[in-house]
Amino acid sequence: MILKHLTVGPLMSNCFILGDEDSGEGVVIDPGGNAQEIAQELSQNQLTLISIVNTHGHWDHTGDNEALKSLAGGRVLIHEADTDQGIAADGYLAEGDRVRFGPHELEVLETPGHSPGGISLYFPEAGLVFVGDLLFAGSIGRTDIAGGHFNTLIKSVVEKIFPMPEETTVLPGHGPMTMVGREKQFNPFLKGVQ
Question: Any idea what the CATH number is for the domain that residue 138 is in?
Fold first, then answer.
């Protein structure tokens, strides 16, 4: 399996490329910029782009959806509750849906709080979860913006992310990766709530 991380756009968002070497199918999570570089990475790894998945609708995670689609193909997928931000979606994702590439599956978890339609993508086979701007290393996503809600965000983390194995790697929308166990123990916003 292929996993590539790119830092894209003016807000230094994390963009991830997942690929299956045997089938040549790939998925891109949160192309917030640098579409040319993402497309080049797909090409170098001989991947056909199947899906462009947005963890939420904010521009720094969706800004190059259309540019990437025109360069590499793929269907734009997002939760319907975040399409009011001008996202041209080809399909909607909801709790329990699966995003497939080759024999692999990402499980869609509804994790609102940073935005109404925020989702996380759980990849238990690889011990990974892509959380967008829900949770960061030692912090949480902003809730002081339109559609944000602090209590909803905390509930999403506690009910959807914290039940995962503690060694699950958390890949956030900005900044370094972390682990479920580390955030349970040390995240100051989440102490005493699980």
Answer: 3.60.15.10
Judge contact between 125 and 107, C-beta under 8 A. no
**Residue 122 burial (C-beta neighbours within 10 Å; 0-12, 13-18, 19+):** buried
Angle at 141 (CA atoms; ends 124, 185), nearest 5 degrees = 60
**Domain for residue 192, yes or no?**
no
User: pTM for the full model?
Assistant: 0.97
59 assigned to some structural domain: yes
Tell me whether residue 35 is in a domain: yes
* Alpha-carbon 9 to chain mean position: 15
Full domain range(s) for residue 64: 2-186
The neighbour count for residue 98, using CB atoms within 10 Å, is: 11
Tell me how many domains the chain contains.
1
| Tens-digit pLDDT profile for residues 101-128 | 999 999 999 999 999 999 999 999 999 9
Residues 169 and 130: beta-carbon distance below 8 Å: no
58-85 tens-digit pLDDT = 999 999 999 999 999 999 999 999 988 8
